[in-house]
């Protein structure tokens, strides 16, 4: 086993241990039935890796099984970690990001309106976003079969480092997203209108019926406070 593979195992085990301790301290429930597929797939891949590495001596297939095993186990561990970091309760930086958008001339609401007016673009964008992990898994499976096993291991190393950096940043500088930020602003306006209505007893058309004046897009932080985080919610 290479030093790189040993380091990956150490990182994954460390993250899983951090998840277990952190979730226990934070009082977060882990949904074991929801992780059943992962719990079955990982031991099977470990056996396939051992078989091709030790008995058959086929480096390509052994690397494919090994790196796929690492990808699945790392994804499972970091999925939960990405939600656990929200319990740090760091202040959101959405307003700063909105200011940066304005400074560079990017109108987020105009962008969303344009995408909504062209549903095909929205579908393509969603498809590209959702295909990232399957494409990484496909590359890790195919590269060893065409004689580029080292590239598969290198790809996964890059993915792991990038994911950990992203999770660390999201914990230190959290953001709920542009749409929740806009919704919070609208909710604030609507509350002001409600107060005005109760004082003057006159209707207002500033934000439509009062019953609509609520945010439909709560932040991930808010949702994580209101209910335990299970495997299914972390994976979604």
Q: What's the overall geometry?
A: globular
Give the H and E element order: HHHHHHHHHHH
What is the beta-strand fraction?
Answer: under 5%
What are the low-pLDDT stretches, counting only 5+ consecutive residues below 50? 186-236
Gap between N and C termini: 34 Å
Structural class: mainly alpha
Number of extended strands? 0
Q: Could you tell me the mean pLDDT? A: 78
Most strands sheet: none
C-alpha Rg (nearest Å): 23 Å
What is the number of helices? 11
Report the helical percentage: over 70%
Topology, please?
Blueprint lengths: L2 H24 L9 H21 L2 H26 L9 H10 L4 H10 L1 H12 L1 H11 L6 H24 L5 H23 L19 H7 L4 H5 L1
Helix pairs in contact: 1-3, 2-3, 3-7, 3-8, 7-8
Give a quick precis of the structure:
The chain has 236 residues and is mostly helical. Helix 3 packs antiparallel against helix 7 (132-142) and helix 3 runs parallel beside helix 8. 73% of the residues lie in helices and 0% in strands.
